[in-house]
Write a structure and sequence with these properties.
- The chain contains one helix and six strands.
- It is mainly beta.
- The protein has a single domain, classed as Ubiquitin-like (UB roll), CATH 3.10.20.810.
- The strands form two sheets. It has a four-stranded mixed β-sheet, with helices on one face. A two-stranded antiparallel ribbon has the order 3-4.
- The longest helix has 10 residues.
Length: 107
């Protein structure tokens, strides 16, 4: 993985492995990638808290890794997952983080 392109972070798209809807986007550093592969649960690097966090560690809405793929440039990951718990990926209590339409006023 080419962690150098984005200051040591890799954007990671999270997608439901069965329904194929995109759930969220977060970032991994090398330690988060290593922990994800070692545990089978998706772990990210929190830019705001400056530390690793495993999705669902407090809520129970964990992301069990089914498949991890890298893009052709090795600078982005796609994590296909099975959702556990209440199956809510967003911190706002929704299944996906992508619930708001984008309009021309958002420019």
């Amino acid at each position: 993985m080419d962690f150098a392109k984005n200051d040591g972070l890799i954007p990671t798209i999270v997608q439901d492995a069965t329904r194929h809807d995109v759930l969220m986007l977060a970032y991994m550093n090398p330690a988060a990638l290593e922990k994800t592969l070692a545990t089978g649960y998706v772990t990210f690097y929190s830019r705001s808290r400056q530390k690793l966090w495993t999705k669902g560690e407090t809520s129970g809405n964990r992301l069990k890794l089914v498949r991890l793929s890298k893009d052709c440039d090795a600078d982005t990951l796609l994590a296909e997952v099975e959702m556990e718990g209440d199956q809510l990926a967003c911190h706002e209590g929704t299944r996906t983080c992508f619930t708001r339409p984008c309009t021309k006023e958002d420019r």
